[in-house]
Amino acid sequence: MFTGIIEEKGEVAALVQAGGSARLSVRGPLVVSDASHGDSIAVNGVCLTVVETDGDVFTVDVMRESLDRTSLGGLKEGAAVNLERAVRADQRLGGHIVQGHVDGTAVLLSRDPGERWDDLRFSLPEPLARYVAEKGSIAIDGISLTVTTVDDDSFGVSLIPTTLELTTMGGLRVGDLVNLEVDVIAKYVERLVRQ
């Protein structure tokens, strides 16, 4: 489990496609500092398992399912990525419950810079729309954010200077693809109500 509070911006050291999967190596001095084989690290909101570490670089295997359902397959060497280690049981839950199980992708439709924050609007895939509510939580590229507005096919968020500076959101451009994880509680409530 994760919180959606990004610990550091990492950098893609390599992405090697291998048939139906890929091997991804990421430079992230903070998250690698105590990482070992089998640990979980979220990369742009995707929970991945460390298979090896070397200095300040960790390597993970990315299965076809993750390549097909997320933006990871489009990463290039040198790209910035959001990194977060799995939460420990004795830590504060600073954001919201984030599983690292991406539900789909979205495209940045618009960006409106303000004096001290930016308002961003993203596309909203139809199958996910029922889980997104104004003032509800959503994870975008692993970042825990509050939904400010929502309609049938798009939603908005507002980003404070800290989020713009310490995550990949500061460099996001209109047309860029992002990973979405809707609130897991909404999915469980829906399933319980349907039964």
TrEMBL record:
Specify the Lumazine-binding domain's residue ranges.
1-96, 97-193
Any idea which UniProt keywords this protein has?
Repeat, Riboflavin biosynthesis, Transferase
Q: Which InterPro entries match?
A: ATP_synth_asu-like_sf, Lumazine-bd, Lumazine-bd_dom, Riboflavin_synthase-like_b-brl
Question: Pathway membership of this protein?
Answer: Cofactor biosynthesis; riboflavin biosynthesis; riboflavin from 2-hydroxy-3-oxobutyl phosphate and 5-amino-6-(D-ribitylamino)uracil: step 2/2
Gene3D superfamilies attached to this UniProt entry: 2.40.30.20
Gene Ontology terms for molecular function: riboflavin synthase activity
Where are the Lumazine-binding-type repeats located?
A: 1-96, 97-193
Is Transferase included in the keywords of this UniProt record?
Answer: yes
Catalyzes what?
2 6,7-dimethyl-8-(1-D-ribityl)lumazine + H(+) = 5-amino-6-(D-ribitylamino)uracil + riboflavin
UniProt KW Repeat keyword: yes
Q: What is its EC number?
A: 2.5.1.9
> What does the function comment of this entry state?
Catalyzes the dismutation of two molecules of 6,7-dimethyl-8-ribityllumazine, resulting in the formation of riboflavin and 5-amino-6-(D-ribitylamino)uracil.
The protein's matches in PANTHER family, at most eight in alphabetical order, are given as: RIBOFLAVIN SYNTHASE, RIBOFLAVIN SYNTHASE ALPHA CHAIN
Q: What is this protein called?
A: Riboflavin synthase
What species was this sequence derived from? Answer: Nonomuraea roseoviolacea subsp. carminata
